[in-house]
Amino acid sequence: MALVELREDLKLGEVAFQIIASDPDNDPLKYGITGTDASYFNVNQDTGEVKIKSLLDRETKDLLQVEVVVNDGVYADVTKIVYIPVIDANDNAPVFHGLPYNVEVLENVATDSELFRVNATDADFGTASIVSYKIDDDGGGTLHGENKVQSTAAFAFITVKDVADINPQFLNLPNFATIAENSDVDEPVFTARAIDPDIGINDKILYSIESTNAPELFQIEEKTGEISVKTKFDREELLDIGATVVLRIKASETHLNVDGVIASTVSDLEISIGDINDNGPEFYECESDTCTQKNSFTGKVDEHSSVGLAVNDLNIRVKDPDQGQNSRFNLELAGPDKDAFHVSPSSGLGDSPVQVTIRDSLAVDYEKKTVMYVEIIAKDASADFTSTASVTININDINDNFPTFKEEVYNAEVFEHCEDGTFVATITATDADALDDGKITYRLMPESMRSLFDVYGNNGTIYVKKGSRLDWEGTNSYSPTLQALDSNNQTGSIVVMIDIMDINDQTPEMNREVYEAYVKENNNFELQIKAIDGDKPNTPNSKIQYHIVDSFFSSNFTMDPNTGLLKNNGQLDREAMDPLLKGVIDLTVLASDMGTPSLSSSANVTINIEDENDNPPQFLDPTPKPFHVKESERGILVGSLLASDADQTDLNNRIIFSITDGSLGSFILFSESLSEGYRGNITVDPAIELDYESDRKTYNLKVEASDLGQNKATIEVQVIVDDVNDTPPVFPSGMILNVNENSSLPEPLITIEGKDVDTKHHLEYELISTECQCNGTKGPCPEEWFKVERNGDVKAISSYDIDYEKCDKVFLTAMVVDLLTEKGENSTEGDVTINIVDINDNAPEFIASQDFFVVVIEKVDTGTSVARVYAKDRDTDEKNRKINFKVTEVIFIGTDRNFTDDFLAADSPAQEDAEGIFSTHIRSQQSMTNNKKGKYMVEVEASDGVFTSVSVVELLTVDSSYRVSLRFNAPVSDVNENLAKIRNILTSATKATVEFFSVYPEDGAQRADVTTVVEAYFVFRNGTALDYDAVTSILNSEEVYREFGYQLTELGFTGISTTITESGGVKSEVFIMIGLMAALAIVLVVTTTSLVCIRRNYKRKLKAAKAMNSAATVVIQNQKTGPVVPGTNKYTKEGANPVLNMNIDTATDLGFDEDGSSADRESLNSLDYNIDMTMTEKDTMPMMVIEEEEEEEDDDRSGSLYIEPLGAALAQREKKRDTDSPGLTFANPSINTTDL
């Protein structure tokens, strides 16, 4: 069994392992693999090398088993099982689980809170399976020889949700409400409103009463917040809290908030309990400040007590808890003994002490009755409420003699609120007993009465003790018992009836502080004003008189002084009031009593006079003047009409203007509010332009002003359209005139006459621009030939000549300007076209096409064209520019003689091309002979019928001996296409005129790869020509070859040959010359390279000599001596410097000197070795780079007193080197210098 570990990231075809087997016979072996996992591998049957066939995957199968088979071809197979653990590679990216990740996050989530947890696994093993997370990779591992970090991205969608983190908010609390006592159950009082400020939640609100100072009186509907009466209640039971119930309302959300509690808020509602007369008087027994309700009382009194004497030991009070007049009550007696007694007082208000007094003294007799019974009945003065208290009166038995008074009842009066100590009355008693004479003392009973009145005990004078508490409106009479006591304390008593006299101390009270009423104007108005006075009824103190306080509007109303009925005095007209008051009248009414001094109170009465639409609109100017409007002004204001409506409210006085007739769609009218009314602005319709030049110059508009109640007013307005200089002048069209060139012209040539429809205008003219048509092209004029005067005259400028040949048309762009224009464009441009008429004023002009013509003598026959001349006439008219040519003279100039000849003639008629150039061929009238070698001077005349011109044409004659054949390795079509380029190159190279004779393929067939022959003549102006040798010499010269050889080669030029006949051969000398020139170029390159190398070699030796000179001047401490090589300056010691005789560290020898040539390096290293290394070391050794230091350019340094030794120089050189600088010398570790 064998074990081979393989990484799963091995690529297909990569070597997995090597099967190693041996055979003692050294037979060739064949290798193979079998087994279930053999499909992963391929094996080389001859070498045993196993390669990957299928990709390994540790995550799929981490252990493979194969059977290795080896066979020598003789014996049976030898097998061996090989287990292959698959080593993990980081080839898997993490995989997220549980996708997608969607999470909702509450808005108040704490920092660093876990939102959700992602889970990813990596199928790899070891560090490659470590998964790390970040929001936007695994632990990393090796994959294909590199550390790789696999990563996977997943998206998470996080939705932020609103949370209940804000308490509810009340919309209408705190607040106040009022409800009367004894209201029905469930009667609504107030509705609380609250909201949940959490927008995303908007939880429902539940309402409750959290606390109150009066429980169980009110209830609240949980969902709606409506507060209603829960139980009927009595205001009088709530007096201890001021009859005001305070509810603390709580608004709670229905769901738990972010803190896990029900969010809530509280606020207070104060409910004031209104009073009604729902309580009757009740009886109480009071001790100090404590009162207890009782319905039975017990007292005592001596028999035969005086009339009016109060029953002792009775402490009775009657209370009615209602307010004001609702608490007034009346008292009376009932029962079996009612006739013997009297109750005092007979009436009271709110709270009053009650006494039972003797009415019939005789009936109070101990011997008849020891106990007497009465009932006190208290009745509410204004409601059906009654209360009864039983009184048991025990009769005291006394002796018969006791002090007596003259009167049984004494009456006295005292004003309410009098000063303390005020005298009431003096009442004395007598006693029949002589022993009691002068010893009688007095006292007032009951004791409770003594808080108000008292008596001086020694003289019976009654006085006021607490006058401030005497109030007629509370208790109007008192009946204290005045007792006279003798020495035995026997008592005689009488009743003193003290009437409290009313004073005017109560101010009338208005039912309301403010009265507000609404009445439409023109209607009657009534308002009842009511006041009450708490003073004694039917007295001047309580009698009330009403009147209006004087004010601006007081006279418009009357008031009944007795009843307080307020009425209007005359018609109420809203329009008669100041509009700033907005129909509101404020009055002050007084309610005064008749007491002394008189007291009064006031109330404000606000009367709102409601406006009625009872007034039509009125134009402020019923006969407006005509409006004038300028024409062509869109949307311009024509005029304004003012109207007003006396009604004071916007609803009734709003005025709408409209044009009902006469506008014809030209005007619109806008209404505009002003402080004094409304304004109707008549404007021209923005879509309309009034035109004075039209038939309608006046408009009669009918304007209507109406309010919302359809009250209308109509007025007529005249609008007059005024003329405005708003129409631009019109430039006359079609202004074309003809002007002869170079001629006398009239003044003016033409007059521009513009038109203007405006009534007032003043026209002037000016020249804007001038363009000319010259040579068929329209553009700026070369000269200004014409001008335009301000009055419109078009004139020629005399300083210039009008020339048709320069320009045949002139376009004047002029402008007519209305100087009186008020609006819009004031000018119009137009064109004046001036045609220049051509006259025959130009002679024909010859056009030189070439300096001379070459005539090949043997090609000239009768009718052969030997030259072509060109001429042009600048005149334009066909009859003026037509040219005819003729040959007037022919002169031959030969080498030996000159003579005149007439064998040449010009073609007639001449030919004209598209550019108007006339041309004609000069043709021979006969054949030419070879003896006429030289040139012909041909005089040619060109005539247009009026003017003539003469030109001389040179004809140079040559024969076929000067014909040169040029060979091109290109098709005929390409050569023909490039003939112009070839001519230019050859002309530049030879400085001769090149005349091509013929172009034909060498083999006569039109094939693309054929050699083309171009036959040409090279002729000079003096009549001489170049033959084959001359052309060859020129083209083969080094100077010409450098300048033009490449160009000709590009065009396919291959050589030159002389043409004896039409199919002559090509000389081989041309190719020999070309070869010699190429060889010469190679020699030059080699020589230059050798010189450069020699120069570098000598520079290196010069440096070495300098270094040796330097080394001789100093003592080298570490120099080692040794034998030298005979006949040389080299030492035999290995590593010694062969020139400087210095030891060299082999560790720093890089193997090559960058300044030495190959031969130098070989000679220097023939006796030593470079660094010894194995092949492996050589393969891994980096290429060393040495930077050459600069040459010393200054030879004067040799005169220095001290020259640095070479060792120090090398050390210094190492310091100067930049570790990052590129090297110049390379050591090849695969080559040994000794081998070299």
What does this structure look like?
By secondary structure, the protein is mainly beta. 9% of the residues lie in helices and 38% in strands. It contains ten helices and 83 strands. The strands form 23 sheets. Strands 1, 2, 4, 7 and 8 form a five-stranded mixed sheet that branches. α4 packs antiparallel against α6 (1038-1050). The two termini are 52 Å apart.
List descriptors.
10 helices; 9% helix; 5-stranded mixed β-sheet; mainly beta; 5-stranded antiparallel β-sheet
Please state the CA-atom Rg, rounded to the nearest Å.
73 Å
List how many beta strands DSSP finds.
83
Strand content: 35-45%
Mean pLDDT: 81
- What profile does the largest beta sheet have? 5 strands, mixed
Distance between the termini: 52 Å
Count of helical stretches: 10
Query: Could you estimate the helical fraction of the residues in percent?
Result: under 10%
User: Could you list the spans in which at least 5 consecutive residues all have pLDDT below 50?
Assistant: 1060-1067, 1114-1236
Morphology call: elongated
> Which class best fits the helix and strand makeup?
mainly beta
Short synopsis of the structure:
The chain is mainly beta. 9% of the residues lie in helices and 38% in strands. It contains ten helices and 83 strands.
